[in-house]
Amino acid sequence: MPEDELSRSSHGNPGKSLVNGIKTNPASNSPKSSFSVPMGPPVYVDLAYIPNHCSGKNTDPEFFKRVRASYYVVSGNDAANGEPSRAVLDALLEGKSQWGDNLQVTLIPTHDTEVTREWYQQTHEKQQELNIMVLASSSTVVMQDESFPACKIEF
């Protein structure tokens, strides 16, 4: 497409905007319903960071159906803002159940939260059935006067 056509097409509809390259309608009340994601094959990656500190605002089962990772990093330690979101953790189970193969998946939480612990305990059987392992922090890094939990991941 010539540059002048590209310029006109991006400004031709003031009611729409681009978010991550996807047309959205800002007047829509539901951010998920405004996305028009073309269907295609799933993407396989080694490591994926769950967007928005594992908030339910941007991640649903479709994310986990389309982005298939060996490792998912779950950050978030803000219960007041719904981080991490139980709905997102449940979406991992739902999305993974649609893969059709039983690839090993490792979930790496960056914080020990009540939401993550409850989800782990309540869905442990389903996790095993789907070949999902939750990696707990098993090491502590000490730097000067500060220490924090850490996980070692090898590829």
From TrEMBL:
Residues 22-36 have a biased composition (Polar residues). Transmembrane segments: none annotated. Signal peptide: none annotated. GO terms for molecular function: actin binding; microtubule binding. Residues 1-36 are annotated as: Disordered. GO terms for cellular component: cytosol; dendrite; microtubule; microtubule associated complex; neuronal cell body; synapse. InterPro entries: MAP1, RibonucZ/Hydroxyglut_hydro. GO terms for biological process: axonogenesis; dendrite development; microtubule cytoskeleton organization; regulation of microtubule depolymerization. PANTHER family: MICROTUBULE-ASSOCIATED PROTEIN (PTHR13843), MICROTUBULE-ASSOCIATED PROTEIN 1A (PTHR13843:SF6). This is MAP1A protein. It comes from Scytalopus superciliaris. The lineage of its organism: Eukaryota, Metazoa, Chordata, Craniata, Vertebrata. The gene is Map1a.
